[in-house]
Specification:
alpha+beta; 183 residues
Length: 183
């Protein structure tokens, strides 16, 4: 989902309907405001874009885009047989409109908004401790299958004091005289 930076507090959801491509009108918008999204331009670069008066419709699994709203704000949209494109009012930015089946869509980076991505580079001992004192050999194997897990430095196993203490056993404090005796 997109990040809304400002909401229109005068918006009344029950008085607003959305007209779908098939002509049906539905009332599903819960709010209206300005939202920040990242959209890929014709060069493949992600561009931060502010959509003014966007509708917040959490019941839709996908974000939808209003051609009418874009053109009313001065942007232009062209649909050709094998190409569709959105251009900003000043024509400095062009965004390809992709097609899947009978639906057109803008290539947005919604996942970048919702998900934090972490890439850590640590030595073997640090990863061993971070992963709950996981076996050193298993940590080395994880580097090849886990995105963002990067080992730096030598991959030599060292003594881990915590693991050594965890493997210690207590001394026997007394001898058992018969099998039913309590210790």
């Amino acid at each position: 989902m997109s990040k809304f930076s400002k909401f229109d507090h005068t918006f009344t959801p029950e008085k607003h309907t959305i007209e779908l491509a098939n002509g049906d009108r539905i009332s599903v918008a819960e709010a209206r405001g300005d939202t920040n999204v990242k959209i890929k331009n014709s060069n493949g670069d992600s561009v931060d874009v502010i959509l003014k008066d966007a509708l917040f419709v959490p019941s839709f699994p996908q974000n939808i885009f209003s051609v009418q709203a874009a053109t009313q704000n001065g942007d232009s949209i062209s649909f050709k047989k094998d190409k569709a494109e959105l251009a900003t009012e000043d024509k400095t930015m062009h965004f390809p409109i992709l097609k899947q089946g009978k639906l057109y869509y803008l290539h947005s980076n919604v996942s970048n908004v919702d998900v934090d991505e972490v890439h850590l580079s640590q030595d073997l001992m640090s990863w061993h401790e971070t992963l709950g004192h996981c076996n050193f050999d298993d940590v080395i194997k994880l580097e090849n299958v886990v995105d963002g897990l990067k080992l730096v430095g030598k991959k030599t196993k060292r003594e881990c004091e915590t693991c050594a203490k965890g493997k210690m056993t207590n001394e026997i404090t007394g001898l058992l005289v018969n099998e039913f005796q309590l210790l």
